[in-house]
Amino acid sequence: VQLVESGGGSVQAGGSLRLSCATSGFSFEDWAIGWARQVPGKEREGVSCTADSDVTTHYLDSVKGRFTISSDDAANTVYLQMNNLKPEDTGVYYCVAISPWSPTLCSARLEFRPEDYWGAGTQVTVSS
Known about the structure:
Elements: E1 2-6, E2 9-12, E3 17-24, E4 32-38, E5 45-51, E6 56-59, E7 67-72, E8 77-82, E9 91-98, E10 117-118, E11 122-127
Parallel strand pairs: 2-11
Antiparallel strand pairs: 1-3, 3-8, 4-5, 4-9, 5-6, 7-8, 9-10, 9-11
């Protein structure tokens, strides 16, 4: 399983970024994919997840209406479109792959396990 995040960077508040998670090594359509972030001074938190080719999606309350997760099955890639970014969105964003046999679910709880497959992360910095 390989996950490669890209698309992070530095933007001003109100700006947008699109994160990509390119995946390989597993049957993309059968797995759920999530995004988590590590914000300075806070515990790592789930931001969003998608399953069943975006039939099921969930978002952290603080990003609802601003972030959109989407999958490209042909490219085995998941995107996180982030609009109206705020300084509190600053952090390292991780892609998480959840296997069909994992106890982790793509749910509103957005709880991912260390045993799931994690990418190396991409930095997002939002300045005020």
